[in-house]
Amino acid sequence: MFAADSSANSLSIRRSARAKRLQVRIFPHGHAEVVVPSRARAAEVAAFIAASQDWIEKTRIRAVGNGAAADLSLPVLIELPAPGEAWQVSYGQPGGRRRLREEAAPDGGRLIVAVPDPEARHLLRRWLSDRARYFLAGRVEAVAEETGLRPAGLSIRRQRTRWGSCTAGGRINLNCAALFLSAALIDYLIVHELCHLRHMNHSRRFWALVESFIPDFRHREDELADSWNRVPGWVFYGP
After folding, report:
1. Is the same domain home to 160 and 43?
2. Are residues 225 and 128 part of one domain?
3. Spatial distance between the Cα atoms of 226 and 239, rounded to a whole number of angstroms
């Protein structure tokens, strides 16, 4: 891992046997990844990063602005718009058997994390995935009932570039980070993936089916594409 600036881990290096040349990828929430051919020398990589630094930083800032995605620190508050929950997070000294304790309330609650970073970050990500599995499963069931499109199953993932997907076997995958979206956007995301059960493409027939359920789908599609900066940086990056 290479720290390009004061935002820890805002840039990483990945060696690839398939890469023909050095290149930079900027993810939707601003993380930069330098893809390095397997035979590239360390000095060559360092020179490439130095030469690309201004472009990387400007592009990264445009991607995330000053929003939640730019903050990679451990959270003290986790706000989940879709389920309408707010969770206060406190950090204590390591000790005891319970590394993360949840004190639930109707509109959120409190999380007490008793381990330091990076384990604290891993525990919070696992907790987020569990919350997503509980909430999104209910929404998928409700939307499937409304549309008559029922998936073979549901998987919860944590992906940096995709909100969701649908497999050839009829399972849909949803990103746990979707909990940071509005309820309306989550329902659109689910409808979008369920429509792939009929059309495994983005043909006119696919979009016509989406529109039959969500007339303003174009607006929601654009909003969804621009929503990565709502996801706090700790969900994807950090130690």
Report:
1. no
2. yes
3. 26
Angle at 129 between CA 66 and CA 28, to 5 degrees: 35
Both structure tokens of 26: 């900027």
Are 61 and 81 contained in the same domain?
no
Q: Which domain holds residue 183?
A: 77-235
- Looking at the structure, tell me whether residues 34 and 144 fall in a common domain: no
Q: Tokens for 2?
A: 């290479």
Please state the pTM of the whole predicted model. Answer: 0.79
Same domain (yes/no): 150, 200: yes
Burial category of 45 from C-beta neighbours within 10 Å (exposed 0-12, middle 13-18, buried 19 and up): middle
Q: Which of 232, 7, 6 is nearest to 124 (CA)?
A: 232
Q: What percent of the chain has pLDDT over 90?
A: 67
Q: Residue 16 is encoded by which pair of tokens?
A: 């690839």
What confidence tens digit (pLDDT) does each residue in 142-198 have? 999 999 999 999 999 999 889 999 999 999 999 999 999 999 999 999 999 999 999
The crossing angle, in degrees rounded to 10, of helices 183-195 and 119-147 is 70
Q: How far apart are the first and last CA of the chain?
A: 9
Provide the token pair at 106: 């109707």
Number of domains in the chain: 2
pLDDT in tens, 59-110: 877 766 666 776 788 999 999 999 999 999 999 876 667 899 999 998 999 9
